[in-house]
TrEMBL record, chain B:
Dimer of large and small chains. The keyword Transferase applies. PROSITE patterns: ACT (PS51671). One of its GO terms (cellular component) is cytosol. It catalyses: 2 pyruvate + H(+) = (2S)-2-acetolactate + CO2. This is Acetolactate synthase small subunit. GO terms for biological process: isoleucine biosynthetic process; L-valine biosynthetic process. CDD domains: ACT_AHAS.
């Protein structure tokens, strides 16, 4: 081991708070309970950390995710043992899938009671083992400081993720004057710069491509705003079109010339066709998720694939690539720019490629039937975007049709403005994430684009917004259906709408008022702009019940098990049945 | 629709890991949660200061899955190094088994004779039983155990495989 060092005698709870402050923590999202009372008492005496009292521990985890994603700093969660920890698990799993840095502090029963089925005991370390980047059970207050420091390093470096620290109550109370130093030098060394031989090869492939594409993901946003800036420069240099996953929106500006829109299941026709037809694909911080690839054996069959990712296990996981590069994506893009400029490459003549892309763009895949009677959901997003684009809003979403419409019709020019549950697909993410984002960005306009079903999954967090006077806006596309479920039932199960109707909905306006929010309802397309303006003008939280066309489907869509070239563009192409192979896919 | 089966390869992986609570559960659980197979798994502390353990895992899967297994192991914080002995070249694999047989007369003589051929040692004996200790590659032990079934096998305990690279270099 290594030498320990002597410090003034302190309790585990005090050591924890001191170490959080040392790590730069100013905000903690949590909910008290028996097994964390010593920590809450220590918190009471330290005014440097602001504690945000959520209304459910799932809300704490998602709020911390929203805070982390919008600020670039790790989010910190503090919950009690047993149900406190298990309630936070969905948020932990969500952060794990979407690579969001979280520190989750959970109380635990005293060490002598562990394993005895004590009151509010759960095996938190066991439960979170495979949905966290790492986790700890701290059995000695002398280990706390070094554990918390290592946890912050693990959560934030390399591919970020949630780290759980389970702290038994007696460890919070017990005092110590020694701190154990951990011998950790070799156990966590994330990749940094790429090997120049690989970068040279990547630049050469890109420079000689006739139909290149940049396929970007959330890794660029995690790598920092510098990486987004580098991406823009690289795109400019090589002249290739840029598409992005759901998680990567904003890394390349949607107003940029090279922007094709999002790719994948509900991506644009031009993005998916370009992915299918490209000759060189440069994948930057994305992971060939099944929502992106569609049918694997038909995924971009003739391209040379370069994949830059900090996580080696993301490379060659589902799609075999020709040039794997394990590196921080921001650093690697900078290296590519350096090599490109150093060798004085010129952007290849890509006129033919762009002409083909123009042809695909002409399909106008995001068009939808208009209506003067009803608000079309896509129209609602378009008007919301038009009314807020100059305010650089932070948008969170729940999960479902509204999320995909937001991804398609709301456009992002900067990173860290789009907070959505991509990998896990967690309904109920958006409202607490908006709370967290507003805490981290007090002056920003934060809007949760929601569905009437998703919003009810963590609707209790309205009280949190009220308590901290957070002027979040919740914009509900209310079509009275779990829209995405209904859409799949229409497409796959011959419109047998099993349990997908949102029955017994609350009166969202009355509910808003009950929580001390402002409530607005609108069902008339002619009055929509005024209603949105009213929402934006209100200095406080607003719940906007936007009554939209009830049975709109989200298109374009690559049905499960289909190739990029088999997109459904409009409802009239829907057959209503699928074979078992397709039904077996999620 | 039917579930498709894929052709698999057997690989022996060795992992150098931190000797701390939960490491084994983390690794074994990762195999379960991602649907990988474990044929055998051995673990023991190997360092003077008791900070490091070596785990040997025998697994099975199509080559891309083996590659992914190694990457997923490396991704775990307490895992310092993963070596695929099967890919790395010539290596030795050994396993130890304790085999108890019961019998008298000719059967007992035959068990003893076979044990001798297989260089198994007797480590416990009564008038009507033996416990043999045998080491070797998994095939040798499989064969020996199969033979013992014919001459009064009672029970078997096996350690699972440990392996090292041949030659002077460490893995």
């Amino acid at each position: 081991m290594s030498e320990d060092f002597i410090v003034p005698e302190k309790s585990g709870a005090e050591i924890l708070i001191d170490t959080l402050i040392e790590q730069g923590v100013d905000t903690v999202f949590g909910y008290p309970g028996g097994a964390v009372l010593p920590i809450y008492d220590a918190l009471f005496q330290h005014k440097k950390i602001r504690h945000v009292l959520v209304r459910h521990e799932a809300g704490a985890a998602h709020a911390a995710e929203g805070y982390a994603r919008s600020t670039g700093k790790p989010g910190v969660v503090l919950v009690t043992s047993g149900p406190g920890a298990t309630n936070a698990v969905t948020g932990i799993a969500d952060a794990f899938m979407d690579s969001i840095p979280l520190i989750v502090l959970t109380g635990q029963v005293a060490t002598n009671l562990i394993g005895s089925d004590a009151f509010q005991e759960a095996d938190t370390v066991g439960i979170t083992r495979h949905c966290s980047k790492h986790n700890y059970l701290v059995k000695d207050p002398a280990d706390l400081a070094s554990t918390v420091r290592e946890a912050f390093a693990i959560a934030t470096k390399g591919r970020p993720g949630p780290v759980v620290i389970d702290i038994p109550k007696n460890v919070q109370v017990a005092t110590t004057s020694t701190h154990v130093k951990r011998a950790t030098s070799s156990r966590f060394n994330p990749a940094g710069e790429a090997d120049y031989a690989e970068i040279n090869r990547a630049v050469e492939l890109l420079a000689n491509a006739k139909a290149p594409i940049l396929y970007t993901g959330g890794g660029i946003i995690n790598s920092g705003s510098d990486a987004s800036a580098a991406l823009r420069e690289l795109a400019e240099l090589c002249g290739a079109p840029v598409t992005s996953t759901l998680m990567g929106l904003g890394a390349y500006p949607a107003s940029g010339d090279a922007w094709l829109g999002m790719l994948g299941m509900h991506g644009t026709y031009e993005a998916n066709m370009a992915m299918n037809q490209c000759d060189v694909m440069l994948c930057l911080g994305a992971r060939f998720d099944d929502r992106v690839t569609g049918r694997l054996d038909a995924f971009s069959p003739d391209s040379i694939k370069i994949h830059i990712d900090i996580d080696r296990s993301s490379i060659n996981k589902t799609v075999r690539v020709d040039l794997p590069i394990v590196a921080d994506v921001g650093a690697a893009i900078r290296q590519m720019i350096e090599v490109w400029k150093g060798r004085k490459y010129k952007a290849a003549a890509l006129d033919d490629w762009w002409a083909r892309i123009k042809g695909w763009r002409a399909v106008d895949c995001l068009s939808y039937p208009g209506s003067t009677q009803e608000i079309m959901p896509q129209y609602a997003i378009e008007r919301l975007f038009a009314a807020t684009k100059d305010k650089s809003p932070i948008i969170t979403t729940e999960v479902g049709q509204h999320q995909m419409w937001a991804a398609q019709h709301f456009h992002f020019d900067a990173p860290n403005k789009w907070l959505t549950s991509g990998g896990l697909g967690t309904m109920g993410y958006g409202l607490p994430a908006a709370v967290g984002a507003q805490m981290g960005n007090p002056d920003a306009l934060v809007i949760d684009i929601a569905g009437e079903a998703s919003i009810q999954m963590n609707i209790q967090e309205m009280a949190t917004a009220t308590q901290y006077r957070l002027p979040v806006k919740v914009f509900i596309l209310n079509n009275e259906w779990m829209g995405m479920v209904r859409q799949w039932q229409e497409l796959t199960y011959e419109s047998r709408f099993s349990e997908s109707y949102s029955d017994s909905l609350p009166d969202f306006v009355a509910l808003a008022e009950a929580y001390g929010w402002k409530g607005i309802r609108c069902s008339d397309p002619a009055k929509l702009d005024d209603a949105i303006a009213e929402m934006l003008a209100y200095d406080g939280p607003v719940m906007f019940d936007c009554r939209v066309h009830k049975t709109s489907n989200c298109f374009p869509m690559i049905p499960s098990g289909a190739a990029h070239t088999d997109m459904i563009l409009h409802s009239d192409e829907v057959s209503g049945t699928m074979d078992d192979e397709a039904k077996a896919l999620v | 629709m039917h579930i498709k089966q894929e052709l698999t390869e057997r690989h022996v992986l060795t992992l150098t890991v931190d000797n701390e609570a939960g490491t084994l559960a983390r690794i074994a659980g990762m195999f379960t949660s991602r649907g990988y197979n474990i044929d055998s798994l051995t673990v023991a502390d190997i360092s003077e200061d008791h900070t490091t353990s070596r785990i040997t895992i025998v697994t099975r899967g199509p080559p891309p899955v083996i590659d992914q297994i190694i990457a997923q192991c490396e991704r775990l914080i307490p895992v310092h190094k993963v070596t695929d002995l099967t890919e790395a070249g010539p290596h030795v694999e050994r396993e130890l088994a304790l085999v108890k047989v019961r019998g008298t007369g000719d059967q007992r003589v035959e068990a003893m004779r076979l044990a001798d051929i297989y260089r198994a040692r007797v480590i416990d004996a009564t008038v009507n039983s033996f416990i043999f200790e045998i080491t070797g590659g998994p095939d040798k032990i499989d064969t020996f155990v199969a033979l013992m079934r014919e001459v009064g096998l009672v029970e078997v305990g096996r350690t699972g495989i440990v392996g090292l690279m041949r030659g002077a270099e460490g893995s």
